[in-house]
Structures are given as C-alpha cells and as structure tokens.
Amino acid sequence: MSQQVQAIGMVWYKRENFDRLMAMFEDRHKLHRTFDEWLRDAEIGRKAQEAKGVRVVCVDIDPATFPAWCAGRGLRVDAKARTEYANLIAYKVLTGVEPPKGVQ
Predict the structure, then answer these.
(1) 84: containing domain
(2) Looking at the domain assignment, is residue 30 inside a domain?
(3) Residue at 59 is within a domain
(4) 40: CB partners within 8 A, 6+ apart
(5) Is residue 44 situated within a structural domain?
(6) How far apart are CA 44 and CA 13, in angstroms?
(7) In sequence order, which residues have a C-beta less than 8 Å from that of residue 58 and are 6 or more positions away?
(8) Rounded to an integer, what distance in angstroms lies between the CA atom of residue 18 and that of residue 13?
(9) pLDDT at residue 97, rounded to an integer
(10) What is the number of alpha carbons within 13 Å of residue 89 lying toward its C-beta?
C-alpha cells in the first residue's frame, strides 16, 4: 500500500517578471503592489503549508507563455487560471505524467 502525499502547486513569480505579470492579470487590483510585499506573504504561506506536512511545488508564471496557455483553455488571465496552472504543473512535477483528460 502506497502512502499518499498531500501536495499543492503554488504560484510563484520572478522579480524581473512581476510588474509585467501584474499588468496582464485581470484581477491585479486584488494583488500585491510590489514584488517584496508579495514575496514576504508568499514565503509565509509556503512555510505554513509545509509546516502542515503539505509538499509545495513553487510554479513560475512566465509572462511570455501564460496568456496563450489561458487563451487555449478559454480561461481569463486571473486567479482561477493561475491556480489551475500551478496545480497542473505540480501534478506533472510530482508524477512525471500528464494529468487525466478533463484535469488540464
């Protein structure tokens, strides 16, 4: 019997991409204004999840490819899409396989 590991994909940004990403996110008014504010809160959130035994996969959002990924799935460029993308990539990282149809 295999042990199941709880894991999540966590949206992660690079400093050099932060402003460009914020400009494209439709829900930017709900997000941090600066990279440093975001990073502080992201690290707190990541550590809190890890303290509960959850494996966190930090998933970089690339401003050059993310809008096309959203468009290809009929998604808005917002929190729902970021979360879906992060969880999809985390699944691939942890399992080494594509998720089942309907999950992508």
Answers:
(1) 7-95
(2) yes
(3) yes
(4) none
(5) yes
(6) 15
(7) 10, 12, 46
(8) 6
(9) 81
(10) 19
The answer to whether the beta carbons of residues 56 and 94 sit under 8 Å apart is no
The tens place of each residue's pLDDT in the chain, 104 residues long, gives 456 668 999 999 999 999 999 999 999 999 999 999 999 999 999 999 999 999 999 999 999 999 999 999 999 999 999 999 999 999 999 888 876 665 44
The pTM of the full predicted model, rounded to 2 decimals, is 0.86
Other CB atoms within 10 Å distance of the CB of residue 64: 8
Give domain status of residue 1, yes or no.
no
* Angle 77-68-60 from CA coordinates, rounded to 5°: 70
d(CA 88, CA 92): 6
In the chain, the number of structural domains is 1
